[in-house]
Each structure stands twice: as structure tokens, then as C-alpha cells.
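Can you give me the bound-state structure? Components:
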Amino acid sequence: MTIEAALTELSTLLGARLSRSKPDLEQHGRSETHFPLTPPDAVAYPSTTEEVSAIVQVCARHHCPVIGWGTGTSLEGHSLALSGGVCVDFSGMNKVLQINAEDMDVVVQPGVTREALNHELRATGLFFPVDPGANASLGGMAMTRASGTTAVRYGTMRDNVMGLQVVLADGRVIRTGTRARKSSAGYDLTALMVGSEGTLGLVTELTLKLRGQPEAISAAVCAFGDMDSAVNAVIATIQMGIPMARIEFVDPAMAEAFNLYAGANLPLAPHLLVEFHGSDASVAQDVDRFREIADDFGASGFDWATRPEDRTALWTMRHNAHYASQALRPGVRVLVTDICVPISRLAEAVEETRADIAAAPFPGTILGHVGDGNFHAELMFDENDADECAAVHKFSERIVERALRLGGTCTGEHGVGIGKLEYMAAEHGDAWAVMGDLKRALDPDNIMNPGKVVRLN
Amino acid sequence: MTIEAALTELSTLLGARLSRSKPDLEQHGRSETHFPLTPPDAVAYPSTTEEVSAIVQVCARHHCPVIGWGTGTSLEGHSLALSGGVCVDFSGMNKVLQINAEDMDVVVQPGVTREALNHELRATGLFFPVDPGANASLGGMAMTRASGTTAVRYGTMRDNVMGLQVVLADGRVIRTGTRARKSSAGYDLTALMVGSEGTLGLVTELTLKLRGQPEAISAAVCAFGDMDSAVNAVIATIQMGIPMARIEFVDPAMAEAFNLYAGANLPLAPHLLVEFHGSDASVAQDVDRFREIADDFGASGFDWATRPEDRTALWTMRHNAHYASQALRPGVRVLVTDICVPISRLAEAVEETRADIAAAPFPGTILGHVGDGNFHAELMFDENDADECAAVHKFSERIVERALRLGGTCTGEHGVGIGKLEYMAAEHGDAWAVMGDLKRALDPDNIMNPGKVVRLN
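Here's the bound-state model for the whole set.
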């Protein structure tokens, strides 16, 4: 058995840092969402790039699948071991290697989480802005091209990864990018790797852009009479060029979930959660201009969080949306959708989605990073009820069809994993075949996270 | 002869839109810089994507090289027909196809120039910000990952291309990206194509991000006592987070060239040319803060251009830097370097480069987009003098070695073409081999702009 042969070699290489214990395998075969347990055959805990390279070389020789693991917070089953193999857990590679404050960049190992990085940076006046909610590892965030609440201002991982060190499918170690702010020196391998979900290689080092901590921050919650007004307020704010740091939409069902789960006291109405970053003067101006727009769309109950602890409470509530939604119907599975559409089609997309939830046999919430045109529906369905399973699948198909019809994408930030694989052909046409060509070029034996992003025949 | 067989078929396909006239061939074999005339065997003038696909299919059958052509303003010999073949001139595909003002994006054909696009956009309140100086085609700008004076604020083509239509080496037409602002749906083919210099396919349509025209603009020139002070003022401005739209460095030799060529009246000193975009209030604040920093570094002779015509004169002078440098020594060739380094190493890089110019047997100027850490030396050398040729080559090697030593790149924005090919191995190591693997996967017969970016054996 080829996997067994690989494990024997890896065991010699790593000793106790190759685990085959059942709890370990189960922990690494689990998903945050609705996918069934799919454990690997072993979990490796490397300490260095050289070790990762050695692991991959062994696996390459034996055609044994290799799957990267950060914190396990991805939502599309990215780390499920569909064909077994070795899960490479990067929790032991969690050092901040270099803080270049003058250049506003940082070099980290892939197991560093975004919160750990920002903790480490707290004395520098700088911070890493990408915020997907979960305290994900930076390696994992790069691999799913994560973004989250602050992308409207600071961009996604695509915009914030300057360079990578990558172990390829044959064990070669390459560096992509430099510490220069821009380059035209050949193909953009950094961008090719970001979002590749471990199917082209394993990231062992990242160089990331940092930002200056804003002088002033102001955040607020406000309610709207209907969904259209809330979404149109977002569109107007974007089009006026008001530089928001965050602008999140919450539907009435989500507001109810926050009340129940987080002890919030929100009216059961659509809400916007906003935040502005800048100088004292610019934030004050931005707040005034947003307030005017929101008032035009009938916003009410403005609640400004100017104290840091109030802002922390606000965004902690937001970040727990997934768990709050789950709590609306305990014990069932959750499917999370992730479409992103051009901003002009956002109101339409949200309205149609709300109607689909109203017609569904399960509860659902809507919330999202509407400044980017990206929103999520969380659907709490009973996996033991065949009708609900069929309905949730139909829902997922319809929302993706909607995204594509409106000029958007099936996934704004969660990635493909196995959850979006069935929509790739519709979204990309022949370009999906090109992705397959690239995969074959860099991983001819299909050992790197097989079964994700592309389908090879 | 395989090329002849292709041309016979193409002639049937395109009629008079396949040219073999000598002036046409020479025009398309010319470079803006020091490379010798290298004409193609024919020039094709397609009108549609379907025609481009048909041209590539013919060329694929006959293994005939295919080279894209925008306006011919690239600086590294990107369009030179090293192995002959067909130059595909996109000047006939110059339509703005769709202006989506609400979504702040636009769909264009590759032959649209940046000035033509901005002219077309003038009534919308929007503009396309990337400004490499030359009135280049947007297809060409995407292919070289161009940037220029405004990248410090608005990013490069990497940041501003949302999606592409591409004709691949086998004639297949694919679409990359969507009109959504972000996506995690698989490999980032848009980013792979941007900067690929026509070696992976020909771009036949681009979707580009637009920005709102700033409410207020203010620009200025100021002089410094020495280069270090000027560069350190830039570094301080960046690190303070002052959002500049442009910040350009000019050395004393370049100032002299502007005086001679553009009738400027600059003291023979290092200068900064800056511009701020924003609201009236924010620009006023930015100007004050920059002024304070510049004063700290001993800036003098501040000249503010608040009238649009004064700003146009300022940036036209800047954009003609290449011709102004050339005019310092008429009749000789110009080699333009393009390194980009981390901002903390910029002063060092510029100083060492100035010393190399002082020691060289030819005149040279320095200017650049120093907000990104990117600057150019323009070297006017006599191609008939063997010593000068050897010296200019040595200069180029030294400046690239400097960039790499300081953590930077051999080319910030001009691209590889043939001029930077010899430095790719040093900059990328094994990652350059990976670029070769990708090239082979998408263009196994090496017909797309052969001899550029990668070397295949």
C-alpha cells in the first residue's frame, strides 16, 4: 500500500511528530460546516521548511496525498482527506520571523494566526488588516484567498501577500515575490499560489503587507425599514467614495440570532454595521457623510461605538455570526453560501435570496461584506431529512446561478474546496480546464490536496 | 517553410489586413530603447476576438510565432520578433465596450489607450488611474504589468485588472475573473496573465477598475539640498501614511534635462514632484503635513500647481523624461534601468546608482516613482563605442545585483522582455523554472512571443 509505505518512512523522519492517534485523525478530518468526517491516515507536525520538503519528497515517491492544515476554520471542506494521506499541520511553524517596520511588511511562518500576528505587532503602530472573523492561520488565509470584514478598505489576501516560500509537489522549495512593493519580473507566482488551496504546493513562509494603525476609529450600528434601503445605502456610500473600513449587512433573522446568542438588543430589522478609519478630521467627515446617506434611506437607532471595548463587543458579535446562526436550530448542519456580485446587482441578489429562504423548509440568516458585493446565507438544515437535504442543495444551486447571472462569482472569499467544485465549470468554462493544465504541470501525480479546486481525469 | 505556410493562410483570412510592407514590418520591429531592429514576417490587423483566435489557430498549426502589439512603447524589447512570425497589431480593436458607472468598472478592447479611455470617461466622474507616462494601450499595459506615477496610490495593472478575455496558444478563448470585486473561485488566472507579456496568450478584452475623480487635486515641485534629504523625505512621508497620489524623484541631471528639453527652470538639484488627491479638507491637510516633512529635510523653492493647466504642464514634462534624457546626448542609444527596492533601502540604492553614473563614460539621469521604491536610470551610451557598450552592460548588472541584494526586483514596472531575461535566474532561482513549466503547459510549442520572460530548452 503506497500510503502505508510513505507513513513508515515519515515515522522514521518525524518520530512522535507523526501522529496516527484516532482523536488526532478525527480532529483533522472535521469541517466547520456540513461535510462529513473525512480523516487522513496520519498527521505530520513539521518544524521547518526543510522538514516540509522532506515530507513532500517521501509522499511524492509513494504517491501519497499531502494536505495542509492551519486551524481548521475553512468552510468548504478544504482539508478533508478525500483520498486519505498525510495532513501537514503547521501549528508548530508559528513564528513571526521578521518585522520590517520601516517597510511596513512582516515575514511569518504559516501557522501564525492573524490574532497572534497583531498581538506581536501591537508596539509597532502597525497591524495586519485582513479579518475573516475566525482566528485563522495566515497560511490558511493565503491558501483560500480569504478576506472578510475589512476587504472593502484593505483588500483581500490577494492584495496583502507580497511573497511566499512554497514547497512544490516534488519537494523543491521556491520563493515567489520580493520585499519590493511591485515587480514586473515574470509570471505572478505569488498570485497563482494565493487561493490555490494547497493543490499546487505547501506554503512555508509568507511576506505580508502591514498598515499603520489608524489615528481614529469610529463604528456604528443602525437599522433600516427594509432590506432594499439598507443595501441601497451601501451602494450609495460606495459610489460616493466614502472610505469605509468595514460595512456589514445583517438581515432580521441574523439580528434575532445575535439577540439570542450574544445578548444583543437589536430590533428585528435589517442593519448595517460600519466602521471608519483615518485621522480625527477625516473620520469625523466620513461619519457625517455616511450619516446623511443613511438618513436619506430612513436609517434609525444609530448606536455609535467610540470606546474600544464597545467596538470589540460589536465585532466579536459579528464574528460569531456563524455560531449564532447555528444556535437558531441546535444540532443540525449548516450550509454557508458565499456569492459576490457587482455592487449594482446587490439589492436584487439579496432580495431573491431572502425570498428563497422564506420558501425553504429550514431557517436561514443573511449577512455579509456588502461593500464588496459579497454576502453569506447560513442555512440550518437537518441532514437526516431527505427533503431538507434536497432543498438545501437546490438553494445552493439557485444562489450560484443567481451570482453568475448577475456577473458575479460562486465564492467571494471561502474558496472552492469540495463545496463549490460542482459550480466551477459553469463559472469558468474553458478557463477551468486551464486550471487543470496548470495543476498537472506543477503536480503531475496529483498528490497535493487531491480532489480540491480542479477535477483531473 | 512553416512561417510562409502560415502567412499564406492568414493572407486568405485577413486580405489587406495582413501586411508585409517593409515600413510596416520595420515599424513593428522597432523598440523605444537600445535594442536593434527585429521585424516580424507580417503584421496582422484583426478586428474581433474570433479573428484573433483564427490567426492563432493558423499559427499553431504551422508553429509560427505570434507576437502581440499595442502601441510599441514598451521598453524591454517585448515585441521584437526574435524568431520572426506574425505581429498581431491591436490598433483596430480599440473600442470601449461597456462603461458600468454604478459598479465603477469598464470593459475595453486591448487597443484602447489609457488617454482614449479617460477621454471617453470624462462625463462619468470616473477615471482609470494607472499612468505609465506613455499613452500605451491597455492591453499592452496589462501584459507588462505596467504602473507609473500613480501606483503609490492606485496600484499597478495587477491591482486594476478585474478580468480578461484571452486567446490561448491553441486558439481557445477563455474568460478569467468576473465583474465581482473579489473571488476565491480557483486559481487566479487574471493575475497569471497580467505581466505575462503575451507569452501565455493574447488578451482580447479587459475589465478594469475605475476610480472617482478626486474632488480636489494639488501638485507641487520642490528642491532639496542633496539626494539623501529628498529620498528620506519620501520615506518619512510614506511612513507617516500620508496618502500621496504621486511622488516622483528627479536628480540634478534630470532637472537639467527638463530645463533643456521642456524649458523648465529648475535649479540643478534633486527634486520631488508630488500630487495629492482627495476632498478639499483632506488635500489641504495632506499638503500641510507633507510641507512640514519636506521642510524638516530642508526643501526649498516650493512651487504649487493648483491650476489644471499648470499640473498638466508639470506631468507632461515628467512624462517626457525619456525623451528629455535622450536629448542630453542626441543620436545615441538609451538604456533604461527599472529596479524597485524596499523603501528603507531606497536612499542607499539611489546613492550607489548616482556614484555609478558619475564613474561611467556616458551621461545618465535618475528619476522614479520613489513612493514605491522604484526608480529609473537613463543611460545615454554610444552603441558604436565598445567601451561604452561594455560599461553600460556592467552598469545594468551592478544595478540589478544591488536591487536583489537589497531585497528588491530587477524590474518594477517595465517587464522582462529580452532586456531583463539574463537576471531572471538570479532573482527567482527555481521559481524561474516553475515559470517555464507553466509556459510549457499553456504553450507547448512555444509560439506565443517566444524568447521573452522564460527560456525553454
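A couple of observations. The domain at 1-213+420-457 of chain B is CATH 3.30.465.10 (Uridine Diphospho-n-acetylenolpyruvylglucosamine Reductase; domain 3). Chain B has two domains: 1-213+420-457, 216-405.
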